[in-house]
Specification:
0% strand; single chain; mainly alpha
């Protein structure tokens, strides 16, 4: 297993507190951006599933009212299959959803453990550096998890759109074929 990148003890002593704070703030911004991307994907998915439900309702309503084994019905059935498949993929985007909150719970920060390890010789600046280093590691884990989740969700969103497009194409082909038979 690959070891995660981290600030070494030697480099922690060399880097200033301001630089470490800059890294921490940059990573918080990156995580915020990834969380916003996740929210945007979710919002677009809700809009898309609303359209799919409307199309499914209309398509099944048409079939119930006009059930006749002709080119039009076969084409609509084919289109509905594509939309059902698209709805499945969009549901994968929406349910369940990985979310990485920013920061950690109080018990995860472990203030008592830090206090027990440090003595009077550990300066306030070094204490802040050590805590920020651990926060940077935690942020990096959250960033990696959220990024992987976003990539997976975007792929599922793409599969949903592709299913709709291929459902339309297949519907047209079926309609043309059955019209000439």
């Amino acid at each position: 297993m690959e070891e995660k990148y981290k600030i070494t003890d030697e480099n922690l002593m060399i880097l200033s507190l301001e630089v470490i704070k800059f890294f921490h703030e940059s990573m918080k911004e990156r995580l915020k951006d990834l969380i916003q991307t996740s929210r945007d994907t979710t919002e677009r998915s809700y809009k898309l599933i609303s359209i799919y439900i409307g199309l499914l309702t209309f398509g099944f309503g048409y079939l119930y009212a006009n059930l006749d084994f002709n080119a039009t019905c076969y084409a609509i059935i084919t289109l509905l299959i594509g939309i059902i498949r698209a709805t499945y993929f969009i549901l994968l985007v929406l349910l369940p959803r990985t979310y990485m909150p920013m920061g950690r719970n109080f018990d995860e920060l472990q203030p008592n453990e830090y206090a027990n390890e440090w003595n009077e010789k550990v300066t306030t600046e070094l204490q802040q550096k050590l805590i920020l280093r651990n926060e940077i590691i935690s942020l990096n884990d959250a960033i990696e998890t959220q990024h992987k989740s976003n990539i997976k969700r975007v792929e599922q969103y793409r599969h949903s759109l592709n299913s709709t497009i291929w459902g339309i194409v297949a519907s047209v082909v079926i309609f043309i074929l059955f019209s000439f038979l």
